Amino acid sequence: MMESDHGKRGHLKVYLGYAAGVGKTYQMLTDAHELKRKGVDIVIGYLEPHGRKDILVQAEGLELIPRRKVAYRESVFEEMDLEAVLRRKPEVCLVDEFPHTDVPGSGHTKRWEDVVDLLDAGIDVLTTMNIQHLESLNDQIWNMTGVRVRETIPDWVVKQANEVVMVDLTPRALLNRLERGVVYPPAIARRALQNFFKESTLVALRELALRQTAYEVESRHVTPLDTTWGEAAPAESEPGNVEASGPTNERILVHMTEHPSTAMLIRRGKRVADYLRGECFAVYVHRESDFSSLRVPQREAIEKHLNFARNLHIETRVLEGTDIAGTLIDFARLYHVTQIFIARPQYSRWQGFPGRNLVHRIVRKAGDMQVTVVAERRREKPM
Amino acid sequence: MASDRLPADLDTQPSPDQLLRQLGTQEVQLRHERLKVFLGYASGVGKSFRMLDEGRRRHARGQDVVIGALQPDLPPELERLVETLEVIPPRKVQGGESMNVEAILRRRPRVCLVDGLAYDNPPGSKNAKRWQDVEELINAGIVVITSLNLQHIEERRAVVEKITGKRVTQTVPERFLYAASEIVIVDVPPELLLERAGQPSATDPTLANTMDRLSELREIALLLTAEVVDKQLEDYLLAHGIERRWGVQERILVCLAPGCDAQPMLASGKRNADRFHGELFAAYVRHPGLSEEEETRLKKQLEDARQVNAHVEVLDGDEPVEALMGLARAHSITQIFVGRSRREHWWDRFWGGPIDRLIRAAEGIDVRVFPH
Questions:
Q1: How far is the C-alpha of A296 from the C-alpha of A293, rounded, in Å?
Q2: pLDDT at B244
Q3: Distance from CA of B271 to the nearest CA of A (A)
Q4: Can you tell me the mean pLDDT for B236-240?
């Protein structure tokens, strides 16, 4: 859905790529020159040239707002000077590397928060990012590359962008650039070739970026191509009619625990809900009304997961109940949930009564709902 | 697939089928090195510029580059690029021009740029289509870099015509794209396209409809590129003997059984596949001794599955879970839909029924259990 334009909020454009060196920053700078020629007041708020000559050359002739120096642990880091950009108040500001995490003590924690401030001040922003930094793809990226990307952007932030443009280059051309030393200095290039820059990985990342861009285009401008997109709750669906119709009311309930797989479950639930244009809730069931009986690591894990879900704009609840399956399902009925997402149990080699495990009990009790047992995408073989 | 029982170790041992495909892959790869396509969703996105610019850069790096074909009426910024490169003049035929394939073959450059891949040659030419000329160049060992507009892809023509309302006659078969080693999407927001076309402001409400139509074309072009890329990934993994344990694309497998309510599963499977632009499969593992009523119900399910365009498979196997998992692994399935049975044996409660076993076996795959 297109965001309604309230007031004079700035326009956000994201240049999306699948790896360093595909040409996002270069493309952004090229467009900046085109805008400048047309008389637009444009500045560079932050540029990360990585010492690349072509980028430095391309940045010439554009006004650069000096970076702010931030001291942290006896080192000095440089960040975008948000205040200075706001004072300068250009029409358009370039901000490289959207998913960057700011050094502690520099105001916001995340660069995207700086960008939101610029947009709120009515400044248009051009920014760059790679697909692997999108929160909902974090597990898939880990699975493909073996790298757990730490700097992520919640999907709802990218959704705020008015335009997402794919900056495309073939993996082979990118590898050539890497070998010619265009992208990184040799030592870093060698290391890069070992994880993200393997050809199969690049091809897969590129496919993800293409699909994500198509999704972003579709969610902004296109009425869905299919016509059968409403899934009424099973109880209401007409028997004998495969093309169940009606308004979308997909409601996904994610069951949180203290187990680390919960993060994966939350991402997956949210992504499915987003694609189906439905809603997503996340609940934790606890025996008591507060967490005081929990051990500290357990409590911290729960709180971390609750926060994580909230940051992704998921409504969370803590429910009190001794019977987890029963409590979950009562809640699900009350909120007309259509699908419950639970983690795949950790199977041990020997198992006494499989019927006793939670998955089994939930499946058995959820007489009128769908239960999705979400599997952790393990990395079994390096590619 | 229909009758062969899938071996349990399918995911480690390449099947004869896989080996055959692997051979085919190598054949394709020979051609791979020699064709690069710049794909755009409309005219004006900058395909020709990207193509010529790549030619210029390769030339600057010392490669022997010529221009084999250009589109008429070049804008000035393209003229400047063309001037830096050697142009092989077209051959005049009565009623028009065509790329001079003989002259290019005699000249034998390393790289030949061919603008407008979908161009029809005038009557009396050796080949009716320019893409056939391009095939000759590729077969002679010349690298071809070319540009193509989405609307000229034969298989996409009907959809695109519905969106644009314009009839297109000159087309290239989609398989030609799949044979290309490299496909690059030239992506530009529709606003910029309208601006370049001299439209004063893209925010003009009267242009909203045009914007939506362009966006639809853009989405189709992005997804088509993703499909080609997915195929390339599959080829690469096959050629290197790597088993794909995950899917970039969502692939849903609906398990059919006469005792289940298949319709909600198929409806939901279809919608999920549409939404994620993924693929839908439906499978039934043959079970002896079905009653007449069960046979009828099953027939209906298979019929319904075909109705929603699922790839339908009927499997044989004493162990249904094993057969289904074999299929799931072979097609990089990401989600399995399974229905609870109408009748459940009392011992399932203690020893775990087929659904429990499926969940246990489906490592790395989501299992969605539907009510009956």
A1: 9
A2: 64
A3: 6
A4: 79
Q: What is the DSSP letter of B153?
A: B
For residue A238, the model assigns a pLDDT of: 36
Using CB atoms, pick whichever of B182, B211, B349 lies closest to residue A355.
B349
Residues of A in contact with B282 (CB under 8 A): none
Cβ of B340 within 8 Å of Cβ of A363? The answer is yes
pLDDT mean values, one per 10 residues, chain A (383 residues): 58 95 94 94 93 90 94 87 96 96 86 96 97 93 86 93 94 87 78 76 92 91 47 36 48 94 93 90 90 89 95 94 92 93 75 60 84 77 43
Report the residue of chain B nearest A248, measured CA to CA: B271
For residue B201, what pLDDT is reported? Answer: 65
Q: Name the residue among A168, A224, A231 with its Cβ closest to that of B184.
A: A168
Q: How far is A359 from chain B (nearest CA, A)?
A: 9
Interface residue A245 vs chain B (CB under 8 A): no
What pLDDT was estimated at residue B11?
35
Structure token pair of residue A242:
């495969």
Backbone dihedral region for residue A240 (phi beyond 0: left; psi -120 to 50: alpha; all else: beta): left
ipTM, interface predicted TM-score of the complex:
0.80
Give, in order, the Cα–Cα distances in Å from B292 to each of A302, B288, B317, B320. 53, 12, 21, 21
Instruction: Tell me the CATH number of domain B33-239, given options 1.10.10.10, 3.40.50.300, 3.40.50.150, 1.20.120.80.
Output: 3.40.50.300
Residues 198-217 of chain A with CB under 8 A from chain B are 199-200, 203-204, 206-208, 210-211, 213-214, 217
Could you give the CA distance from residue B292 to residue B40 in angstroms, rounded to a whole number? 54
Nearest alpha carbon to residue A271 among B7, B371, B334, B79:
B334
DSSP A376: P
Q: Tell me the C-alpha distance between B60 and B311, whole Å.
A: 49
Amino acid identity, position A345: P
Record the pTM. 0.82
Residues of chain B with CATH 3.40.50.620: 246-370
Query: What's residue A382's pLDDT?
Result: 42
Which ranges in chain A are annotated with CATH 3.40.50.620? 251-374
Chain A residue numbers touching B277 (CB-CB < 8 A): 211, 214
From chain A, the residues in CB contact with B308 under 8 A are: 242
> What fold is seen in the domain A251-374?
Rossmann fold (3.40.50)
Distance from CA of A151 to the nearest CA of B (A): 21
CATH code for the structural domain at A12-221: 3.40.50.300
Q: Where exactly does CATH 3.40.50.300 map onto chain B? A: 33-239
Q: Whose CA is closest to B257, among B183, B171, B320? A: B320
Q: What is the pLDDT of residues B275-304, one digit of tens each?
A: 888 999 999 999 888 899 999 999 999 999
Q: How many CB pairs under 8 A join A and B?
A: 194
CATH of domain B246-370: 3.40.50.620
Q: Outline which parts of chain A fall under CATH 3.40.50.300.
A: 12-221
Q: Answer yes or no: is pLDDT of B326 > 60.
A: yes
Question: Which chain B residue's Cα is nearest to A239?
Answer: B263
Q: Considering only the beta carbons, identify the residue of A143, A234, A378 that sits closest to B363.
A: A378
Q: Do B263 and A222 touch (CB under 8 A)?
A: no
B339 Cα distance to chain centroid = 31
Task: Measure in Å the smallest separation between the Cα of A285 and chain B Cα atoms.
Answer: 22
